[in-house]
Design goal:
elongated; single chain; two-stranded antiparallel ribbon; Arc Repressor Mutant, subunit A; alpha+beta; 233 residues; Nucleoside Triphosphate Pyrophosphohydrolase
Amino acid sequence: MTEPGRHCYAYPHPALTTDVALFTILDDRLQLLLVRRARAPFADSWALPGGFLDMDEDLDQCAARELAEETGLEGLELEQVQTFGAVGRDPRERVISVAYLALAPPDGLRIRAGDDAADARWFPLDALPDLAFDHDQVIGHAHRRLRERLSDSTLAFRLLPDRFTLDELRRVYERLLSAELDARHTAHWNHALSTIEPTGEQCEIHGRPARLYRPRRAGGDHSPPPLNTPDQT
């Protein structure tokens, strides 16, 4: 006889986890936050921050909690990417994972490994270590989603200061796309230009004036930035 409030089913239930692919730009390279696992399976291997869903929390809460427990980072915007459920992806049991994508500016981020993470650090996306589970596939999907979202969202602003030059905006887009902006990425760049407005201020870069921009505000200047200004070169 089962206990009050408990249920028995004819079929076993899989476990559910969340994993977070958190990107930033450091040393002019797109980088990803990884944790070194302190426990089996894959002890001492690097993996995405993540863990098992508690019975009293939803998926978004689980992703945010695991990220905070294993890296010390809180308050970041998380976006679901995809669900991964291949048989055998976790040697412990049948585990399905919901992957999340996040972006964070490098300034002010204080990484602190905790819970079952022995270490936490940034790795260049093009120089990742061997990874636990199927996290190489998770990261690949997260990066593809990031590149797709650049043409219809304002994700890139999470990696920029409040005021920025067009050159700074361009470099962020190029790092996120892992490619130079050319004819293949016209839609991305046109979208970027449509979401910013001039501040009326300038800064000096290598002895030359450069206009400063900010994310477009409601009722702001809707004219596109001029394309022949010194800060475009």
